Amino acid sequence: MTVRLDETDRKILLQLQQDAAQSLDDIARKVGSSKTPVWNRIRKMKEAGIIGAQVALLDAESLGFDACFFVLIRTSEHEADWQAAFLKALKDRPEVQEAHRLAGDIDYILKVRVRNARAYDAFYQALISEVKVHNVTALLSMEQIKSTTALPL
């Protein structure tokens, strides 16, 4: 279901995408409104599910997670039991930052953040010990060129 947003809602969302920790006063000033209407709009957008969890974005490399792998997975298994086990294995692994089921030749792609290649191998060995996969290709990101959580409002 698509929720109708007006220009003020979009301005508020743009501000929150830039810095969700800024004060209501700052957001209201930047969008040309006052604090109470901005708070009410934010509350309504949270209730509608437009605004989800508000989190702190951490710098992976500063914390020692220097390796980012994109893992391409092909499987010959498509039964419900296999899918449930696969999804559980992914959800149980904090190294998996994103997981997508794809259309095309590759069934799944994972974004996996680890400290180094040895840590990736430990992740890989644990994953394949839990679920059967037909083929796994790991691609090491050499440089992150762009990363954003912001939607193009």
TrEMBL record:
Q: Which PROSITE patterns match?
A: HTH_ASNC_1, HTH_ASNC_2
Q: Which Gene3D superfamilies match?
A: 3.30.70.920, Winged helix-like DNA-binding domain superfamily/Winged helix DNA-binding domain (1.10.10.10)
Q: Which UniProt keywords apply?
A: DNA-binding, Transcription, Transcription regulation
Mind listing the GO molecular function terms for this protein?
sequence-specific DNA binding
List the record's Gene Ontology CC terms alphabetically: cytosol
GO BP annotations listed: regulation of DNA-templated transcription; response to amino acid
Among its keywords, does the record have tRNA-binding? Answer: no
Extract the Pfam families matched here: AsnC_trans_reg, HTH_24
Q: Give the top-rank taxon of the lineage listed in the UniProt record for this protein.
A: Bacteria
Name the UniProt record assigns to this protein: DNA-binding transcriptional activator DecR
Native organism is Pseudooceanicola algae
Lineage of producing organism? Bacteria, Pseudomonadati, Pseudomonadota, Alphaproteobacteria, Rhodobacterales
